[in-house]
Amino acid sequence: MRFDYALVHLTYTIPPAILLSILYAPLCTPRDLYKIAFLVTIALLSTIPWDSYLIRTNIWSYPPDGVIGLKILDIPIEEVFFFVIQTYNTSLLYLLLSKPVLHSVYLVKEEKGRSRWKYIKLLGQLGLALVIKKGIEYVRAGGRHTYLGLILVWAVPFLWMLWALAYQFLVNLPFTSTLIPIALPTLYLWIVDTLALKRGTWVIEQGTKTGWTLWPGLEIEEAVFFLVTNCLIVFGLVAFDNAVAVLDAFPAHYPHFSGLPSPVTLVRALLLPAQTYDDDRILGLQQCVARLRAKSRSFYLASSVFQGRLRIDLIILYSFCRVADDLIDNAKDPAEAREWVQTLKTYLDLCYGGPTKTADGREIAARDPNQGPATQHIMQHFPPDTQLTLLLLPTDRLDKEPLYELLMGFEMDLQFTATSPSGPIKSEVDLDTYGARVAGTVALLCIQLVMYHHPGNTSEATAQRLMRAGHDMGVALQYTNIARDLQVDALNTRRVYVPPAWLKKEKLTAESFVTGITKTSPTPSSGAGTSDSDAFFLKKLAALRSRLLDRAFEFYDRSKSAIEELPVEARAPMRVAVESYMQIARELRRPGGFSVKAGRATVPVWRRLWVAWRALCGPVGR
């Protein structure tokens, strides 16, 4: 039958390609397409001459009645398509599993003469060189080791080169970015190859194979072939991401970096000596990512769909907000908390104060890494685990007013006391103001970073309107946050963010609200097993939460359409950021209650992923 090989594709290689394409389509970026096209091109250019040689020297063959008949350099068109589809499928799996990874945090500065990485690199090169030597011996000997030797001599030099360029990443990256994208396609293709060999779709000549099998029906040469080709694909993808990570992480080396770097630029980035890496920047990014992962699963998930330097800047901004909040919240008393607010204000004053002059007339930039007044203030007044975040905050791209307003929001938190649980929240207007300061400002700053990295043709008027809409969306998220944390805030900090007028409508005061929360803990999401009075209080709690959520959705509804006016590179990621958090509000409204973890309503992992995928596909309704 002339379509045996074509049927292998229709049955075994094209269906996974379709499935992976559907799954990854909402996540796909121009850089991803460029990466896949780059790898497919290299795969074709490197494999066609080798495969053509094997066919012409009768190492393997294809029965004439098993292929259509179209050929490129004696290679059946189905085989050429196999090079493409294997590279495509393995690349998509790699991209899907690597999406959450911020590759720049896996870079490592190597100290000259004192780094273990030199030995890791040499050990890998030596091991691969020995495999190449063995392959050469097999080819020279001929006979039954010929095919195995030709596989090793062809593939392993490429692996040696890729290891030499990207050994740090190949060792450091999570196994989900290395081992799994190699192992799964390899195992799958071993099974497909076993079936094809049994059917006679392709044939290895008896005199050039060892006769060893991995399992009945799978020649060891075929097993090695699929293993090394998937290693080549993944090693190539890792090397590409290593190069892009260098370009993204070090603007001092690459101030003007295009989102689609040329092959020459990629090679130059890979050849940048690791001794020249900015280890403070790498460590700072690692701390920022760890802080984001620990503090907000929703925004950690959302950050993974932003790209490049925008993603890095957004993570640093979030980390700064967490650092400031934690310094103030974890102070031993209100006086120390106010000192931290003042210290942070001084930090902003110095960052935005412009250069200073030395006695000899030299100008020193405010954020000069060695002598800048802002840098010195950070090193002298902030804890070590916060310093790098403060040093990395991109104040040159951010307006100062929202940052000062953020600190004003933290000052409002300091007005809550044990004797005044309502603190500064005397009305709905006060609650709006609080939300605007602690969250609206951050959302506005996020939009500023988007507009900086993707300016496009957006007019100043449109940019201002988008920032106002972002500000409102931030308020919506803060109302959601308050609704989620009603119990936690009342129990842990005796803070009641609900306006007194709302409490009064439920015949409550701030004090009686705290008392009611205390009595109904630790399972405030359910009335089961409680007294009648507790059940009555829980109904009031639900009514107050519902009102907070109504307000959240008011701000959400009037600002969500602006997301579709953002630069195209940021629309889908911003949808994910917003919808991942607003899903908490939807969970709080679900009939039958909601899941609680550590006193907070949570969104199950599977639902968070579904919400993110749906948001990537297009605008989401309420």
Structure description:
Pathway: Carotenoid biosynthesis; beta-carotene biosynthesis; Carotenoid biosynthesis; phytoene biosynthesis; all-trans-phytoene from geranylgeranyl diphosphate: step 1/1. One of its GO terms (cellular component) is membrane. The radius of gyration is 30 Å and the shape is elongated. 67% of the residues lie in helices and 3% in strands. The model is unreliable at 524-528 (pLDDT under 50). The chain has 23 helices and ten strands. 40% of the residues are buried. The longest helix has 30 residues, at 220-249. It has a two-stranded antiparallel ribbon. A two-stranded antiparallel ribbon has the order 2-3. Strands 5-6 form a two-stranded antiparallel sheet. Helix 11 packs antiparallel against helix 12 (334-351) and helix 20 crosses helix 21 (532-559). By secondary structure, the chain is mainly alpha-helical.
Q: What is the count of β-strands?
A: 10
- Proportion of residues in β-strands: under 5%
Q: What can be said about the biggest beta sheet?
A: 2 strands, antiparallel
What structural class do the secondary elements suggest? mainly alpha
Form type: elongated
State the separation between the terminal residues, measured CA to CA: 55 Å
